[in-house]
Amino acid sequence: MKQWLYCLLVVLFAPPLAASDMRYNMTPGVTEISGKVYHLHMTILYICCAIGLVVFGVMIYAMINHRKSKGAVASHFHESTKVEIAWTVIPFVILILMAIPATKTLIAMEDPSNADLTVKVTGSQWKWHYSYFDQDIEFYSILATPRPQIEGNEVKGEHYLLEVDKPLVLPVNRKIRFLMTSEDVIHSWWVPDFAVKKDANPGFINEAWTRIDKPGIYRGQCAELCGKDHGFMPIVVKALPEAEFEAWVKEQKQAADAAAQAAQAALSQNLSKEELMTQGEQVYLGHCAACHQPNGEGLKGVFPHLKGSPIAMGPLGAHIEIVLNGKAGTAMQAFSKQLTTQEIAAVITYERNAWGNNTGDAAQAKDVDAHKSGGTNSEPVATTQPPSTTDAPKAVTEPIASVDPASLPTLTHEALMAEGEKVYVTFCAACHQVTGAGMPPAFPALAGSAIATGPSTNHIDIVVQGKTGTAMQAFGKQLTPQQLAAVITYERNAWGNNTGDTVQPADIARHGK
């Protein structure tokens, strides 16, 4: 009997003593809130365990002592007021006892007022952007796990997939307010040691806060399925004593000044193609390979290839433009604030000469800077338009309605199809796919669609004006009438659509009247 009693005491009281050290249990964390969440979790767990013990204990007792083989006869009773009151009141009381501490903890978790420091956290595929409001410091934090480890060619490190190039640095003993948002899809910023897990939604701002009690390095990751590299989006927070944090802030400002001076000095440098290729490969693997793949072949139907692509093989200015400013309506981000002019020049040089592209081009930092400066003028230095079978048209700088239809050329169906395919691959294939199959329901198919096989005026209207409430952009100010006519002609005759329609640039101009 004593042995059974001892075992029961071990079962009941050993778990609370060792719970905080259990590998799969919630962590107590290093903040007051995380401690409250942990204790609330354990309290609810023990209440549930106690209920389970009572319920299953009564069931087992009844099955053993009131079984038919012992001659037990079941009692018959119906509509017992006492039983109904008991099974209503007892759960209600238990829920109230659980709700009181839970409500207190939730209210405390949602109170970011009177913060000492505010940090804006912006998620994007697949990195975090941190901005310190009062310190004028901002930087991107990306995965630092070496590619050979990810590909299985090296032994995985201690913090595999939980290490970054630049951690978020925070002071201890200060209330820190987080503002969470996203540039593309829904992400979720989650650091278990802080008991902070908040969604970062595009177009919205969510709030959270923490006050770290203990210096150290704390790790987390994106907790929302955000795309192909969801598992490669870690969070690392370095908590420093207040004096060390202030010293870090000064170091960051000095580093920013030094980086500005280095960027200015880079404008007068001409690196060799070999130097640019070496640096460019490192930048590419760190910032671009997640989408376009290390071999430059992309992911068909999702991320376009760079090997032999119109961008990497076409005009240098167009390549610089898309890397600097991204491409609206696609996953292509703007890297003008993420990389230095020297890094952008290097990665463009690499993309234009790797995987057999061999253009021979060597972009310099001054070329990128000139494009930045030129982009603020009325006439852009370069556009993102693909090569044409005729003279390459300029970017649209005036409304289509003001273009004289009589001034536009009349092209053959074959010429329009050839140019239209190039325009489509550059501007449309990222969403509607090279095959025209789209990615329903997000991006509709064009092969056999009502738009591509219906009245051409409807087709022209949606390409020129876009469609409100969807991802379909207005291309009336992005493409020339000739490019618009070409891509519409291509869409109406490719992938088996075969309408036989030939849309001329003059048709586009007349449509805008």
TrEMBL record:
Q: Which UniProt keywords apply?
A: Copper, Electron transport, Heme, Iron, Membrane, Metal-binding, Oxidoreductase, Respiratory chain, Signal, Translocase, Transmembrane, Transmembrane helix, Transport
Q: State if Iron is listed as a keyword.
A: yes
* Cofactor binding notes: Binds a copper A center.
For this UniProt entry, the molecular function terms from Gene Ontology, in alphabetical order, are: copper ion binding; cytochrome-c oxidase activity; heme binding; oxidoreductase activity
What membrane topology does the UniProt entry give?
Multi-pass membrane protein
Q: Could you provide one GO biological process annotation from this protein's UniProt record?
A: ATP synthesis coupled electron transport
Q: What is the name of the protein in this document?
A: Cytochrome c oxidase subunit 2
Q: Locate the region Disordered.
A: 366-394
Reactions listed under catalytic activity? 4 Fe(II)-[cytochrome c] + O2 + 8 H(+)(in) = 4 Fe(III)-[cytochrome c] + 2 H2O + 4 H(+)(out)
Q: Tell me the ranges covered by the Cytochrome c domain, including all copies.
A: 275-355, 415-495
InterPro entries per the UniProt record, alphabetical: CcO_II, CcO_II-like_C, Copper_CuA, Cupredoxin, Cyt_c-like_dom, Cyt_c-like_dom_sf, Cyt_c_oxidase_su2, Cyt_c_oxidase_su2_TM_dom
Q: Where do the TM regions start and end?
A: 43-64, 85-103
Q: Where in the cell is it found?
A: Cell membrane; Membrane
> Any one cellular component term from GO for this entry?
respiratory chain complex
Comp. bias regions, Polar residues: 374-391
- EC number(s) given by UniProt: 7.1.1.9
Q: Which family does it belong to?
A: Belongs to the cytochrome c oxidase subunit 2 family.
Q: Does the keyword rRNA processing apply?
A: no
Any Pfam family matching the protein: Cytochrome_CBB3
Protein's job: Subunits I and II form the functional core of the enzyme complex. Electrons originating in cytochrome c are transferred via heme a and Cu(A) to the binuclear center formed by heme a3 and Cu(B).
Signal sequence, renumbered to the chain: 1-19
